[in-house]
Amino acid sequence: MSRGDPKPKAYAPFVSARYPASGQPSEKPAWRVLVHRKQVQDWNRIAEMCGESNALELWTHLTTRPNQKPLLGTVTPMKGRQYGATSDGMSRVYHYEITGGGRVDYRYNKEYQVKGSGDAHQIVQIVLISLGSH
Q1: Cβ–Cβ contacts within 10 Å for residue 46, how many?
Q2: Measured between alpha carbons, how far is 59 from 20 in angstroms, rounded to an integer?
Q3: Residues 65-121: pLDDT tens digits?
Q4: Residue 94 and residue 67: Cα distance in Å, rounded?
């Protein structure tokens, strides 16, 4: 992690993913995007590796409608028992193909609570980031 990256706390070992372009998003995201601390550097390189417009399409999908078909791009549910929905409310794993050479696998939870207390949040958890051909 670089010096300015968030530290894992309530969602440990996951941290909030940063907006992939310069500046801030125009609206507060409806879904909180979490990335594993070991993948923060890959997340931070998405715009560089796949193009800023493609990174913003991914961000828009993940923060507004990860549980629906994307407006642009391709999302496919992963097959296999290990990718299915979990008992803690997380969805099955979905594969988002980034135009320009990359993929992000994610799952989501509409009502995630940290340790069963506090307010429920809509979260998207990045499972895998693969930049380059696969």
Answers
A1: 24
A2: 7
A3: 999 998 887 899 888 887 887 878 899 999 999 876 789 999 999 998 876 667 888
A4: 9
